[in-house]
């Protein structure tokens, strides 16, 4: 059974709804994840819906420009990222720390060596 989770940046200008069961969080050590300390949960892009205007979320891209890092330009919090999986399916990486209704401490964390990529 899947659940709808709601989340937002700190000020609320960027808010989302995500459908799915949270099995784990991914802690990555790449140049951007290490700095922002996000805990990522990957879902099909179609499972994520912005409940605030699309234009309210800023977009940051670097390196190969394959991932859109979406954040709030007002409070600076990274809410999610958009990209594609190896098969080309659109995926979203939700920052679990932005979700309101979850027990973060109960979610298993997997460490990912993104720095090595
Ligand atoms: Zn904000």
DSSP helix count? Answer: 1
Number of strands: 10
Helix content: under 10%
Give the overall pLDDT as a whole number: 95
Order of helices and strands: EEEHEEEEEEE
Across the major sheet, the strand order is: 4-9-8-7-6
> What is the terminal-to-terminal distance?
34 Å
Give start-end ranges of low-pLDDT stretches.
Answer: none
Any idea what the shape is?
globular
**Which ligands does the model contain, each kind named once?**
zinc ion
Gyration radius from CA atoms, angstroms: 13 Å
The secondary structure category is mainly beta
Beta-strand level of the residues, as a percent range? 35-45%
**Sheet with the most strands, sense and barrel status:** 5 strands, antiparallel
List the helices and strands and how they pair.
Layout: E1 3-8, E2 15-20, E3 25-28, H1 31-36, E4 40-44, E5 48-50, E6 58-60, E7 68-71, E8 78-84, E9 90-95, E10 109-112
Parallel strand pairs: 3-10
Antiparallel strand pairs: 1-2, 2-5, 4-9, 6-7, 7-8, 8-9
The protein binds zinc ion.
Zinc ion is lined by residues 9-11, 13-14, 72, 74-75, 77.
Provide a concise account of the structure shown.
By secondary structure, the chain is mainly beta. It has one helix at residues 31-36, and strands at residues 3-8, 15-20, 25-28, 40-44, 48-50, 58-60, 68-71, 78-84, 90-95, 109-112. The chain starts with a strand and ends in a 5-residue tail after the last strand.
Describe the structure.
By secondary structure, the protein is mainly beta. It has one helix at 31-36; strands spanning 3-8, 15-20, 25-28, 40-44, 48-50, 58-60, 68-71, 78-84, 90-95, 109-112. A hairpin with a 5-residue loop joins strand 8 (78-84) and strand 9. It is globular, with a radius of gyration of 13 Å. The model has no long low-confidence stretch (mean pLDDT 95). Zinc ion (ZN) binds next to loops. The site of zinc ion (ZN) has 9 residues, from loops.
